[in-house]
């Protein structure tokens, strides 16, 4: 089942905010065999919104819009929908009660603008928005459905998964079964990987499809299968994933769609180990990636972000001589940082980074993108193993930080393999 | 000048990656009066791409595509463009040289798939991609232009700003001047702010436009003006921004489009102060936001991410009695964390957080979303001032972390006002 998504809002076209709603919707629907067929982003302009709806209805039976439902003057979606689907605007008492309830839970009092959220077209059925003030509106026309949802990502995520999508599945029944498998692959560039598996990929039957998603230091391979026979497609996808995994060996670091942070937390949890980070150039990003994951606190103990050399020495115990002899961006320093984090935080596993994220700070010897990283683990016998290496990452500051984060997490995952 | 953007790639529609290219393009063009008029995201399907190009050319004279230019089988954009614009596919020796150069700089050797990047339609003019292997292709048809760019964000950002956009501006001259002003406003909800300034907003002349961009704890107000007379519109935008700022008083924390992290770094730099963070529930995100900003290292000294109580005591010097008497999520604990960070990191300003980001860990007394936060500053006379407060944030784990980060940075900005 294909769905068209329309993202409404000048802020999207201006690049002030990034649309994450369409991706959230796609990821949630995928396991049920529902796909986003196309996404259109348009401004807060009535003509543009109407054109986008026309086109979406040409392509799909289900159209989802997000955004443009706020209380301020620049949000015009509701009026456009009234014009498009007909009917009058009326105040809905149930929506007004819900708006009052949501506003008071946030500790505010309702004002005229917020109260206006309760005015909706008579041509729609309202789905109450439990987590925000903008009502969700379900319109039908000639057997097709348009659902207008708010733009605030957490509201859309919450209401789409709990109400909108279950109701859509109730209305439109589909009967193709979808299965997929994922391999997370390291050590290969995208083209080297593609070349290695080309003969295998070309021999895939038409009901199986392979997709590459390269990220710095990591490639996600996804096998999708679609077939009317559920058992058949499940076993075919499993067989294909097994063949790929056998071909790629140690380069496969997970057979689930997990981030390196999730994989490392899972391995540490299985082994009963706690985790720390000592971060210079990554500036807390590794800790942030780890702590974004719910339940990380049973494994992750803490971090020292040692941007200054004083903090490297004071909190991590890096020796002044090591810094002076090698510079902060060096293998001896990241080794001492990783081992220092084990002691300072009191953890079993630690990763450390020190590098030049740019744009300033580079030299001929150590250009921007040079990052030294280490992973250390204290084995059950009390011995500490520490491995360090230097990388050169292309791209801007953010990309260097992200690539360093991914690489050092993968480094720790591989180090733990030997445990 | 309006531009249509087409984002190509199954990975976008599947929600595996989020499109940031269209936003990057929009933000870069805005100061020159160029706008993204619409964005379409389509899969790696020839028919879908052709339809999207047809529609884009209906709306705009300039169409930019990103993605679908990778070396693997699922990337088909190049073939679609050849069919659309005509001509043959040929190997371009200059592109091949560039591909070899880029690949060898990354420390890899060229293989057949990478070499195939050098095959381009004869109907396009190639713009060499200095930072990646996929050539950028410039097509023209009936006075309109389509430029096909790669999907990798840093490649597109780099090549769009340095080559593609300057060449587009050279071809299409525009003559309306655009000015804008931004106010960053705290202390108001979106609707309370809208209500306060409604009479003023309604009286704005038609060449001025006000847009709201709410974020947790902060609203960006943007005034855009467009007029043929550059001096006139510049003074009008300035006048409007001045009126707004006078109306909102202390709630305005910046008159530039800066994040709280940027504002705080700027204030610290002006005052000659260094900065530290002590993070429990934000897990390093505050440090990450600060260190994403180039040049932050002259102000930001370091952080302690104290997820476990042992780290709170060991590295930050929080007293065991304080933890036992009040719990980790409490005002006394975040005060001790902030003051401990001043000492441990050796900084003048510190912010601290401790809270329940969820989804687990909540209780009746301290539900998920409860976050205690503190900001501390050591004044020139050696006295330390520390302020702490408790917030309740709605939403999921990520939203609680982001909202806490924004709030505590704003708290520090306000504390420094008194300096």
Automatic annotation (TrEMBL), chains A, B:
The lineage of its organism: Bacteria, Pseudomonadati, Bacteroidota, Bacteroidia, Bacteroidales. PANTHER family: NICOTINAMIDE-NUCLEOTIDE AMIDOHYDROLASE PNCC, NMN AMIDOHYDROLASE-LIKE PROTEIN YFAY. Belongs to the CinA family. It comes from the Bacteria. InterPro entries: CinA, CinA-like_C, CinA_C, Competence-induced_CinA, MoaB/Mog-like_dom_sf, MoaB/Mog_dom. This is CinA-like protein. The keyword tRNA-binding does not apply. Pfam families: CinA, MoCF_biosynth. Keywords: Hydrolase. GO terms for molecular function: hydrolase activity. Residues 4-171 form the MoaB/Mog domain. It comes from Duncaniella muris. The keyword Hydrolase applies.
């Amino acid at each position: 089942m294909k769905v068209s998504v329309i993202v409404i809002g000048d802020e999207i076209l201006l690049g002030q905010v990034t649309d994450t709603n369409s991706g959230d919707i796609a990821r949630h629907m995928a396991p049920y065999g529902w796909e986003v067929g196309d996404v259109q982003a348009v401004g807060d302009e009535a003509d543009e919104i109407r054109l986008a709806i026309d086109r979406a209805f040409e392509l799909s039976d289900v159209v989802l819009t997000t955004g443009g439902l706020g209380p301020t003057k620049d949000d015009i979606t509701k009026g456009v929908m009234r014009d498009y689907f007909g009917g009058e605007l009326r105040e809905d008492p149930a929506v007004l009660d819900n708006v009052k309830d949501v506003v008071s839970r946030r500790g505010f009092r309702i004002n005229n603008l917020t109260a206006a959220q309760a005015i909706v077209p008579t041509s729609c059925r309202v789905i109450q928005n439990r987590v925000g003030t903008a009502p969700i509106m379900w319109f039908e026309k000639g057997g097709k459905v348009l659902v207008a949802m708010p733009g605030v990502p957490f509201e859309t995520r919450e209401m789409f998964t709990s109400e909108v999508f279950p109701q859509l599945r109730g209305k439109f029944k589909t009967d193709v079964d979808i299965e997929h498998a994922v391999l997370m692959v390291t050590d290969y560039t995208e083209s080297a990987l593609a070349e290695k598996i080309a003969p295998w990929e070309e021999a895939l039957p038409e009901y199986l499809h392979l997709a590459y998603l390269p990220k710095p230091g990591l490639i996600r391979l996804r096998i999708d299968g679609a077939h009317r026979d559920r058992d058949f497609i499940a076993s075919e996808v499993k067989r294909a994933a097994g063949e790929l995994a056998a071909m790629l060996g140690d380069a496969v670091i997970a057979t689930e769609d997990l981030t390196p942070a999730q994989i490392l937390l899972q391995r540490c949890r299985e082994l009963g180990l706690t985790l720390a980070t000592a971060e210079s150039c990554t500036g807390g990003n590794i800790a942030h990636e780890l702590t974004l994951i719910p339940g990380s606190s049973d494994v992750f103990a803490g971090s020292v972000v040692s941007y200054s050399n004083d903090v490297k020495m004071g909190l991590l115990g890096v020796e002044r001589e090591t810094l002076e002899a090698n510079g902060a961006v060096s293998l001896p320093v990241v080794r001492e940082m990783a081992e220092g984090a084990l002691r300072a935080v009191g953890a079993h596993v630690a990763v450390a980074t020190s590098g030049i994220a740019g744009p300033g700070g580079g030299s001929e010897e150590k250009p921007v993108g040079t990052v030294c990283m280490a992973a250390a683990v204290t084995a059950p016998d009390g011995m500490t193993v520490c491995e360090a290496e230097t990388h050169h990452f292309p791209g801007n500051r953010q990309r260097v930080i992200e690539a360093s984060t991914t690489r050092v997490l993968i480094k720790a995952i591989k180090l733990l393999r030997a445990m």
